[in-house]
């Protein structure tokens, strides 16, 4: 008996992918060589098991129409075939396909059922993002108010000084209270640079008052850290960015505060008898999770300088989310266009739902992005299946599966076939509103620099902090890393989702993990050729609707070559929005030798290279293309 289903083929599942609530889908299974007594069932699970009889049609195809529920959820299915007294199970494997088993292994195809009214901001889908670690981007000559820091700190006089790592004065671990003095006015001065780079949205790591340079230990959500500037500086940054077509989104760290904060005040920096740690009658006392004796408390992953909060505590909800002057609203009123939620897995679903409602109520065009490192459609954390992408929580997430897939593919860890399969899972599981808003990263403040990852150079895991600071790529591997970085950037700019450049990647900065991935932007050592490449591909993306909201179709994925099409036809994009027609063939060859491929293009006469200078004529509907080693190309397709 031959059985076959492919969830990515419209012959077997129509329509493809995630579905809006109250819609329906036609699911089909091919069963060859059946007898008169053959019965086929669609086994569905959405909280309870259902067996739906499938009707036999032509050519051995069995089909059933499945109605989506009113309430958003995840729905799972596989198939059961009964014949001659035997029962067979057809369960999911990969690439949308399955295998025949004598017993079920519960490996099922997923349908994400999202709120039919779910929409994400249109402007965001059409943007290129740039992530800035504020202390390390650019320092304006205007003096900063670093004298307001409450404990001993390090302020580097030289922007290019090596890092000085010292112990935290009160807790275990490094202090991270060394500052280079990058500030908001410095970002304002570099708006022309960002505009020239093609940036449409800036994601700022935390900017609120805190002990550390990373500011994930919030001291006061209501105040700009004085080292960075003032509230007026923030307003001016937002206003001048908007004048240049750039919007600002902020980092919201709401699962914990700093122990050195106006709320907790463990060290007395905010007064001797204030804050939850020092005053049992403090208005903030109920925010925290107390345990044991002598003031014991729960903290984020055991970091004692990051006390966890009770996110659903009414006074905390009011302060952060719900009141007229709540934190998330205050900064949107002052010019921000959304929030990136730090460690979204630590935030209850209900908290995120309230946050979305309040943010959209303040500005319907504001965006809400979550830090999630896995497939966000079916993520479980703390034993709970999360509801991030069902329509009433996040607009989308940081696309770590994209990052991991790109780096693995470009360094030879996986073949193009596996990369295509990984990305296919996201296409199948994510609502398109979320997929086309996914934050496509190659690196962040939490990961090793992309260029260093792509080098393939061995990194001794036993290196000391001092040795990590001195680590540099050798010349041969750096050359290869730059070529691979161009391929990664190309994939970012031509793939589905919002590309996000981590500050300095565009000029070839390298560095190991935290804190060496957060070094100051190297303004005196710019890889001009790499920077020009970035500018060229961001300009291409910004000028071509099809590269932003067009259809994506994989044409060829074999070994080290990945080929895909981006297109808009009939004047409408994937969301039904009026858009300029265009068809673009994208090719990435990660191999260290040139490759020749043949592609069928019955309706295309000429392929015009947009990065290089070669064009390809299609003969009898066939295009023969040679792609150089470690290179990429995008062709405009002309009939």
Provide structural commentary.
This protein is an alpha/beta fold and 639 residues long. Among the domains are: 2-114, Immunoglobulin-like (Sandwich), CATH 2.60.40.10; 258-309, Oligo-1,6-glucosidase, domain 2 (Alpha-Beta Complex), CATH 3.90.400; 399-519, Glycosidases (TIM Barrel); 546-638, Immunoglobulin-like (Sandwich). Helix content is 22%, strand content 26%. The strands form eight sheets. An eight-stranded parallel beta sheet has the order 24-21-20-19-16-13-26-25. Strands 3, 5, 6, 9, 10, 11 and 12 form a seven-stranded mixed beta sheet that branches. Helix 6 (327-333) packs parallel to helix 7 (349-362), helix 8 (400-410) packs antiparallel against helix 9 and helix 13 runs parallel beside helix 14. The two termini are 44 Å apart.
Number of strands: 34
- Spatial gap, N to C terminus: 44 Å
Instruction: State the helicity in percent bands.
Output: 10-25%
Give the strand line-up of the largest sheet: 24-21-20-19-16-13-26-25
Mean pLDDT: 95
Helix count, DSSP H or I runs of 4 or more residues: 15
Structural class: alpha/beta
Largest sheet: 8 strands, parallel
Instruction: Please name the CATH topology of one domain.
Output: TIM Barrel
Question: Which residues form runs of ≥5 with pLDDT under 50?
Answer: none
What CATH architecture label of one domain applies? Alpha-Beta Barrel
């Amino acid at each position: 008996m031959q059985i076959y289903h492919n969830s990515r083929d419209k012959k077997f599942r129509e329509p493809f992918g995630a579905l809006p609530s109250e819609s329906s889908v036609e699911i089909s299974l091919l069963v060859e060589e059946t007898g008169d007594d053959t019965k086929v069932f669609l086994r569905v699970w959405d909280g309870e098991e259902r067996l739906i009889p499938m009707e036999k049609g032509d050519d051995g195809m069995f089909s059933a129409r499945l109605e989506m529920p009113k309430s958003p959820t995840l729905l799972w299915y596989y198939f059961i075939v009964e014949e001659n007294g035997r029962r067979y199970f057809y369960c999911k494997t990969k690439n949308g396909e399955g295998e025949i088993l004598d017993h079920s292994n519960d490996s099922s195809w997923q349908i994400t059922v999202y709120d039919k009214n779910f929409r994400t901001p249109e402007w965001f889908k059409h943007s290129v993002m740039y992530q800035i670690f504020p202390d390390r981007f650019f320092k304006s000559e205007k003096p900063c108010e670093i004298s307001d820091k409450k404990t001993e700190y390090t302020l580097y006089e030289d922007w290019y000084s090596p890092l000085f790592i010292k112990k935290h004065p009160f807790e275990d671990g490094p202090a991270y209270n060394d500052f280079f003095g990058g500030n908001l006015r410095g970002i304002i001065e570099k708006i022309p640079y960002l505009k020239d780079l093609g940036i449409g949205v800036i994601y700022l790591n935390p900017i609120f008052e805190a002990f550390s340079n990373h500011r994930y230990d919030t001291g006061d959500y209501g105040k700009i850290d004085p080292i960075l500037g003032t509230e007026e500086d923030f307003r001016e940054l937002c206003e001048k960015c908007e004048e240049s077509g750039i919007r600002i989104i902020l980092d919201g760290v709401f699962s914990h505060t700093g122990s050195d904060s106006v709320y907790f005040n463990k060290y007395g920096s905010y007064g001797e008898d204030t804050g939850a740690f020092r005053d049992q009658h403090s208005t903030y006392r109920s925010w925290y999770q107390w345990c044991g004796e002598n003031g014991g408390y729960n903290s984020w992953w055991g970091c004692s300088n990051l006390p966890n909060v009770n996110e659903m505590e009414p006074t905390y909800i009011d302060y952060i989310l719900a009141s007229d002057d709540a934190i998330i609203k205050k900064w949107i009123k002052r010019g921000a266009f959304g929030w990136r939620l730090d460690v979204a897995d630590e935030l209850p679903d209900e908290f995120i739902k309230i946050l979305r409602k309040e943010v959209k109520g303040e500005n319907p065009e504001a965006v809400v992005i979550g830090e999630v490192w896995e497939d966000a459609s079916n993520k479980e954390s703390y034993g709970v299946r999360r509801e991030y992408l069902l329509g009433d929580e996040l607009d989308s997430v940081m696309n770590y599966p994209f990052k991991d897939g790109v780096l693995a593919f470009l360094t030879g860890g996986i073949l193009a076939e596996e990369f295509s399969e990984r990305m296919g899972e996201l296409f199948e599981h994510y609502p398109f509103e979320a997929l086309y808003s996914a934050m496509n990263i190659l690196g962040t403040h939490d990961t090793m620099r992309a260029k260093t990852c792509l080098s393939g150079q061995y990194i001794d895991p036993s290196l000391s902090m001092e040795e990590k600071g001195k680590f540099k790529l050798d010349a041969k591997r750096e050359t290869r890393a730059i070529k691979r970085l161009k391929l990664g950037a190309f994939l970012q700019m031509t793939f589905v989702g919002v590309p996000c450049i981590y500050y300095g990647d565009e000029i070839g900065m390298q560095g190991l993990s935290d804190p060496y991935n957060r070094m100051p932007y190297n303004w005196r050592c710019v890889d001009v050729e790499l920077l020009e490449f970035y500018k060229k591909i961001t300009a291409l993306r910004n000028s071509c609707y099809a590269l932003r909201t067009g259809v994506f179709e994989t044409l060829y994925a074999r070994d080290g070559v990945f080929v895909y099409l981006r297109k808009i036809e009939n004047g409408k994009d994937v969301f039904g929005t009026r858009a300029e027609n265009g068809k673009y063939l994208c090719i990435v060859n990660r191999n260290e030798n040139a490759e020749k491929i043949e592609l069928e293009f019955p309706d295309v006469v000429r392929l015009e290279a947009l990065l290089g200078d070669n064009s390809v004529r299609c003969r009898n509907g066939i295009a023969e293309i040679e792609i150089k080693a470690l290179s990429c190309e995008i062709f405009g397709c002309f009939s």
